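Replying to the earlier thread about multi-chain prediction with a worked example.

Input:
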Amino acid sequence: MTDYTSENYIQENYALATSPSLRRRHAKEARFKWYGRIAIMIAFGFLVLMFSTIIFRGAGAFQQTNIALDVNFSEQVIDPSGERNPQALASANYKPLLTAALSKTFPEITARNDKRHLYKLLSSGAVFELGQLVSDDPSLIGTNQTIWLTASSEVDLFMKGKIDANLDETLRRISNKDISYIQALQKNGHIKKKFNSAFFTNGDSREPEMAGILGAALGSFFSLLVCFAIAFPLGIMTAVYLEEYAKKSKLTDLIEVNINNLAAVPSIVFGLLGLSIFLGVFHIPRSTPLVGGMVLALMTLPTIIIAARASLRSVPNTIREAAYGLGASKTQATFHHVVPLAMPGMLTGTILGMAQALGETAPLLMIGMVAFIVDIPHGVTDAATSLPVQIFLWADSPEKGFVERTSAAIIVLLAFLILMNLLAVFLRKKLERRW
Amino acid sequence: MGQTVDLKPVNLRLRRARRSTQIKEFAIQSFLIASSFVAILTTIGIVASLAFEAFRFFEKIPLTNFLFGLEWSPQTAIRADQVGSSGAFGVIPLLTGTLLISFIAMLVATPLGLLSAIYLAEYARPKTRGIFKPLLELLAGIPTVVYGFFAALVVAPILRNTGSGMGFEISSESALAAGLVMGIMLVPFISSLSDDVINAVPQALRDASLGMGATPAETITRVVLPAATPGIMGSLLLAISRAIGETMIVVMAAGLAAKLSLNPFEAVTTMTVQIVTLLTGDQEFDSTKTLAAFAIALFLFVLTLGLNVVALKIVDKYKRQYD
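Result:
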């Protein structure tokens, strides 16, 4: 028998523990563990870096510089006829009101060239803002009001510190004169950064300060609506057929192989399918959420089918047998008992599929949802873009003012995605049963 | 007692009821079969539309010119008698660009994905695993347009500045920037599939190795990984297929110039980039340029389909090995 406490054994083990080869092996073990930690840290660090840069760059876009002007809504200029015809009010020329108000704020500036600089402080969309105000409330006509109007992109960038005033005048997009005007306005408190509500209520625009994401967001919404209406029923019926009805045959094998391969087809190929079949053969209107939703539906179908099948499979057989035992037919057992029990899992899978569709860009580029569209879509057949496509368009724009808006649009998109994922997690936690 | 009940009408009613149920069952079943055919129809639609347009393209440009041509310049002239009016439609420069970016991406994604999968599957405590596994999967849920934005506006300038600081030139649209960011995007695909595969290796193999005195690291590199190799290869192939088909990152960060070059610091173009540029401009639907996009797409589809079929076969075969 070996005596484990003997001096000899301990010495032997000590020798072993300090042997160079064992030490090397242990060091290797520790190193290997660290490789894994470092790999995770790199991936995680990248995630943090990406999120923080986007938030850091985009946060500014939620504020917009506004300039306060005393506007005299002169009846002579806007509505000389006095009829208050809404159409005439909307299309009237509001520019004289702005020039008058600016001259009132800066009475000392008379030179023509200087005045032109002065007008450029305001966004070219400011006249439309006045028009909107008047058509919303015609009683403004004939009164004097202090109105906060959107400043131009250059002024906005300067106010946010994105233009370096120490730079040589020729190298920056805002002149010394402009800066002196801004400082004069600042002294009276007539220039201020306010919450940028236009970003959430406007459509796209060539002017960064007037551009908003509502048009793109609604385009995404309508596309997802179409996508859901097609993909959800189709996906669930396919899953029910494959799990509950189909016997294993060459045909079901073929369907299964198809679904698995479709899940891995590059998304841009679905866009080409939409281009040549939906647009080319069926002549569905181009650039509409209708055709966008149809393409996205085909793309998300495999995701939904795979999730729905897993969910159906998790419903125990005893449920089916109990239904049969009470005389239910196959269809009754399936649709009265199995499908409702599998529904939470199916919904979770569908929401995740929709989240994937919301972030998809490439196929939509193929079917013309990449156009410059100012109007806000009101239905599935109006031309529209989608949030990710809008991000792509703005990221491509050379205007400096669009940089922060791109990041802000990404923040909005990610917020929607996180919401959808949280909803899926919530549904899974709350409704899904463990059998 | 002794009373006889006439069952005839009851039987008849039952039979009728059964008959109507059967009809209903049949109708519903046919409906379900029909909807499951949409998957097949989609595949047929993809193949048919791509093949049809590509066939028209190959009527104008011979197949061999497309497959083996070393030059890509799809500019077709406005007048027929102009110099270089035919354009050059060789897919090789696009293929090398695609493979170069995919290679860089895999160079980043393979070690990161595999090592994270190994750590999460073999070393991490359940709590750590519960935190970092969803975080890694979050990377898969970020839209590719966001990665593209990040590659073009953050990673590319950093690379350019580091490059010029070290004395060599990295163009502002480079294969390196697109590849690096795409590599990060692919990490969750590799890690989550490899994680499943590693977990499927029977514990008995590990116990045997540990019992023989091997350290955990030795067990992983000499027993677990060899046993999991086929599945890991499958996950890598799937990731490559995704890299080849990825569009937005390369559209935003890789560039347009079709150069036959393997220099990662230069701008290269890919098949997906060319499809987008050829089809988003304003031109008539029948021009050689638009048809060329379909030919590239068919090539892309066949390539990724081949990779997927092989990958799924490997994974499938492996799955059965330890069942």
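Residues 20-58 of chain A form the longest helix (39 residues).

Feel free to reuse this layout for your own posts.
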